[in-house]
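Hi everyone, sorry if this is the wrong subforum. Our group has a chain we'd like a structural model of before ordering constructs, and none of us has done structure prediction before. Sequence below.
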Amino acid sequence: MRPEFLVNRSDNTVAAAISGYLEHLLTTLAAPFELAISTAYFNAEGFQLLADVLEKVGRVRLVLGAEPEGQERQLRHLDPVSGPEEMERARLRRALEGHTRSLKADRDLLGFSLETDELAERLITWLGREGVEIRRFEHGFLHGKTFLVGTDAQGAVVGSSNFTYAGLATNNELNLGQYQPHVVAQVRDWFDEVWEQSAPFDLASLYAARYLPHRPYLIYLRMLYERYGAELEEEAQGAAGIHLTSFQHDGVWRAKRILDKHHGVLIADGVGLGKTFVAGELIRQAVQERRQRVLLVSPAALRDGPWRYFLGQHQLGIRSISYEELSRDHQLNPKRDGDHLHFSIDDFAMVVIDEAQAYRNPDTERAEVLRRLLEGTPPKDLVLLSATPVNNSLWDLYYLLGYFIRNDAAFAHAGIRSLRGHFAQAMALDPDDLSPDKLFDVLDEVAVRRTRHFVKLYYPNDRVNIRGESVAIRFPQPKVQRVSYDLDETLPGFFVRFAHALDCGNGRCVCGHDLEEPTLCLARYAPSGYSLSGHPESYELQLAGLLRSGLLKRFESSSHAFALTCERMAASHGAFLELLDQGWVVTGAALAEWMATDSDELSNKLSDELDVEGLDLTDLSPLLPMMLPP
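Answer:
Right subforum, don't worry. Here is the predicted structure as tokens:
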């Protein structure tokens, strides 16, 4: 029953040999005995292997110690004061700090199962029992490992095994049992000397910390760190090339991670938070760091205004075109002969689309052109910019994501087996019951979205660089001033004439106005009302009604914009009639595209699709691809 050769093998382990030896002593010795243990490392799993017998031993002394972390590279210090002794003390200090971290790491790796919880409680109870003492040797490194029964010089197991699960059960260890009284006495003297030089070490409190109550907020922060910690650490390693605020810098790094994972990202920060700057930094990294070609697609007004200034200011030489130029390029639309891309579509590694909500209708020519642009291998990175990705319904968001999320099960790892089914479930809910949590798991995967309230709350001291000067960010506080005026006095009878012109030409209501002024008939969009049968088609009446509502909404927004829209509609109608006289009928493609867009885009859509602005009505060749013979 006295083990002499202790190794870890399939038929016997160091733990089994020590446990058997101690059980033998417990049953054969009349008086209690003392067990002394020295080890560098300790963990709860190692204790579990010997727990049944250790709980029966009367007195246990356990000494822990640190081992050097392997052979360290010797560096020549320029400081003459740092001699060998100072260097050795620093080395020991680092080793002891590492030893404490190692003990805590082993504790934290226990997990939270019922079995491990019971084990931790059992260990804490044993460590707190009278007769169990724990110390740590801190005057040097501790290499010696022993399980010593010093009472009456019974025996000592000396070797390489630490008091850990690996040391007692799995590692390729070598230990020898010594039972000669004079040898055991020498081991006991060595241990007593180490014990006297060691300091008390509260191992029980280290494990009891596992049961300390923590504030929910701290747990929440730890959850956030586990989820986003790698992203934060990666972010801290880099610096943006364009001057960005802190929240814009954070947005860039989040967008990069999403692009790396999905080859697409939706940047949906609120109005005025600098989506242009976030996208601009992504463009800069692609162009200047990765030497890639980037295509920017935006409304013509933004292309020639903010984007032209931004790209020039930051010297970003990329191809910037409008929606309409993209749709008219011959590479993407065989019916057109425009050359607006200037390069092969396969040359572009990144596509940035501003005001991306314009592409939310998947059944339009514009959407089909974009899908053709994004085809190919390797996939292009797609950056969608939109403060309002949802206009009519949640399907708007779904179709925008569809440009780069091609697999319906792409978020299965987040518990979403079908992306389309997930959106269908959200759409089926009562709008009053729909909470942001319903789609958070999807948006967290694909979107960068911050509001002004979020920025003010979490970036209260953020600063922005304006012409080389760092200025604190301040959002304007609206101060509404009431201005009263009498419109009837300024424009007598205007609203009566306006209502008459807009609504009394639909042929469905009796005009109660004593006016002979012309009305808006919209005959081009409801031609069945002029058939001999006299029964207009209901869908045409609905279409005309939508157009009237859109015009009224435009007037509510801006009287000047309303006037421009009416002028362009009239110019478009004039072109239609002239073509009709020549034997051509314009197809409904332009109208369908127009109706798929917000009413706020009415005027732009009319001018863009028909290119009426600057169109010489004697030269209608630009319209020919959109026409069919009657």
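For your construct planning: Residues 72-78, 588-630 have pLDDT under 50 and may be disordered. Residues 5-211 form a domain with the Endonuclease; Chain A fold (CATH 3.30.870.10).
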